[in-house]
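Predict structure. Chain length: 232.
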Amino acid sequence: MWSEVLPGGAHWSWRMPRGSAIRFVALQAGANLSLVLYSALEKLERYNMPDSLKAQHTAHYTRGHVLMSDMGRSMASFTADSLGWHDPLGALLDNEAMTRRYGDKRYEHARNAMHRSGKDGLLIEIGKYGLGKRDLIAPVNLFSQVTVDAQGRFGFTPEHARAGDFVELRFDMDVILAVSSAPHALDPRPAYAPGKVGLAAWRCGAAPANDYCRAFRPENARALHNTDMLYL
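Prediction complete.
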């Protein structure tokens, strides 16, 4: 369908049809890609992080997992993954944290070398579809790993993704997809140096009856069935 290279710190959005897929590739080590999903049929339906994690008994995503909506439907499925861990818990880098960590670098002076937070990038993108601050949801942070210790503290794994690592998402319903390649909110690196991400989209067809993600957990089969019912 198309391919793109998303520079570090950039943001973009697409309307992805049911039965399409994207391969995301980390073109530089330490890349992060924050994404959010909304139903293109009814924008009040959107990715729900708590329901997705609870239903699948997980605190990270990899091949076999699905991203569920707040209506119990599968919005997208992880069909391939070279990393085995993508973060759903670490939220977004906002302007306050970005300025504390990296300093203030505005477009008027830095031009394309400006700093832009993941939160601002996603707000710009979802605004193109009539959505605003109240609609910004917890993202999925592809290529990033966040662990939790015995005291409940988050730990970020530096350089989790190497150049060439990839993950593929199949879209199980018509969705609005917005992404930001800004640094992860917990990335401890002192310099603002987000990595580039490559994207390639194609038509793969809807999940078949013997789909790996459908068989991964009973809850996933139910979520995919609920989505299928929309398209009978």
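Summary: The chain has a mean pLDDT of 95.
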